[in-house]
Predict the structure.
Amino acid sequence: MQTVTIKDIAKALNLSTSTVSRALRGSHEINTETKRLVLEYAEKLNYKPNPIALSLKENRSRAIGVIVPEIANNFFSQAINGIEAIAYNRGYHVMIFQSQESYEREVVNVQHMVARKVDGILISLSGYTTDMSHLQEPHNNGMPIVFFDRFSEQIDTHTVIADNFDGAFKATEHLILSGRKRIALLTSLEWLSITQERMAGYKAALKKYNIPLEDSLIRHCGFANEELLENVDRLLALSPAPDAFFTTSDRLALSCLTILKDKKVKIPEELSFVGFTNVKIAHLIDPPLTTVVQPAFEIGQTAAELLFDLIEEKKKNLPFQKVKLATTLEIRNSS
């Protein structure tokens, strides 16, 4: 089957190839009637643009790379949906990679994207990424990079996050106003940006209500369930024991609830429980889970818009933004 080209359309309609090209792109330089003729003829011949030829002509791949710690995490899957919605409307393809919370895999992912000449990178850092040299080098060479959710101050670029401080503050305040005084915080690795922001919100709420901060009630958990189990055991062994748990991620919330149920802890009678999560089944959990909800889809959309502005060189010379999107607290029976 012979491939239809712009030259074929131009010859058939007695137009220049540049006119046809601009008409297919919807350029304002071409009048409405000419656009109509070109588009109708192109559709009739089932014309499809050659992505390789376009990338060579525009010096763009029309593709972006996205790196997330884990696609199975509902927050990241929703964020990817937001990214893809914007990319599709802008005429870009999306290449998705998982770091699986590994710094080494993240480095390889970035190297692969640069080698494939993607037009830009959206990234949420792995749990063990502290060295930014794998991102700093392409960034210095002009590669547009935007952080979302997890970020680093070491690279000066756009960042899009949930308002982690406010979300954690509201969750902790809700537990305090419900009569809880010994609120345990189960959170992620301490060097992560989301950990620092959510812990700051937790501490601010305790301070507002004159509740002493106890370091023994704060537990940082890695990504092994054994580590979470050990931390839960230590918290329950305290005297007096915590009367509430606040967990700051999907993974911690669901795993922690499972551990507490196995230990026959009654929620919320013995222990109130609040998560920081985007799990869609939060209302179906027994008991239904009180949770801070992050606008994951909107975070993905906003990050993608900012990346495409960088790629297409819009809004030149404006300072990079740190965009914070509001969270909401959904109060259910677990608290």
User: Anything to note?
Assistant: The longest helix spans residues 74-90. The mean pLDDT is 91.
